[in-house]
Amino acid sequence: MTSTADTTLSPILERCPVIPVIAIDELSDAVPLAQALVDGGLTVLEITLRTRVALDAMKAVIDQVPQAVVGVGTVLTSDQFDAAERAGARFAVSPGATERLLDATAGRGVSLLPGAATASEVMVLRERGFRLLKFFPAEPSGGARFLGSLAPVIPDVRFCPTGGITPGNAGDYLKLPNVVCVGGSWMVPRDRIAARDWAGIRDLAATAAALERPPR
Ligand code: 3PG
């Protein structure tokens, strides 16, 4: 069974090899930051709900950077999901999954990418129809070696690993048959955002966008 969420999410996650996981402290940084990432070739952006201005930042990017496909990250509750949907998020990412969140978000227009870090968590979400999951936190949970071990036994679930991904290890994940893309914050370091170093962020994004993802 392929869920509606997967048919909506697949083309989004397949668009770029890397999804920037973004925390925005200053609202005025949102649009130039998103534009720098898009200019570098990363057009799918995850704006996390870890800062006070996150929802307003998302709205500003959706309004002013039309090339970006904007999702919301760090969704822990259905109230947060609802607020992100109202703000115009195209997808929602959660570090894990709870029954309550899954029930509240089932069949909604915004697709949820829930997190899993064990074979059992993957199986539970698979039973609920999910075929695309976040693997989080990727490096502390066993990294590419662990995720690759799931491919032969649960071959119909694909992942976006995040958590500890770097330019040095991203390639190890991207070559796995069960990885659709990776997520990470290395191209949006807080010090560069604070310095408004948009050219530097654009260059980091361009290097990330050039990472090889073997054709499937
Ligand atoms: C996430 O929310 O996916 C992670 O915090 C991103 O992890 P990173 O900062 O280690 O890239």
Ions, cofactors and other ligands present here are:
3-phosphoglyceric acid
Structural class, please? alpha/beta
Model regions low in confidence, pLDDT < 50 over at least 5 residues: none
Rounded to an integer, what's the Rg over CA atoms?
16 Å
Q: Calculate the terminal CA-CA distance, rounded to whole Å.
A: 20 Å
- The structural domain count equals 1
Structure summary:
The protein is α/β, with parallel strands linked by helices and 216 residues long.
Descriptive overview:
The chain is α/β, with parallel strands linked by helices and 216 residues long. It has a single domain (4-204), classed as Alpha-Beta Barrel (TIM Barrel). The chain contains ten helices and nine strands. The chain has helices spanning 4-13, 30-40, 54-64, 78-87, 99-105, 119-127, 143-150, 170-174, 190-194, 198-209; strands at 18-22, 44-48, 69-73, 91-93, 111-113, 115-116, 132-135, 158-161, 182-184. Helix 2 (30-40) crosses helix 3. The relative contact order is 0.18. The protein binds 3-phosphoglyceric acid. Residues 21, 73, 136, 162-165, 183-185 line the site of 3-phosphoglyceric acid. 3-phosphoglyceric acid is lined by residues 21, 73, 136, 162-165, 183-185.
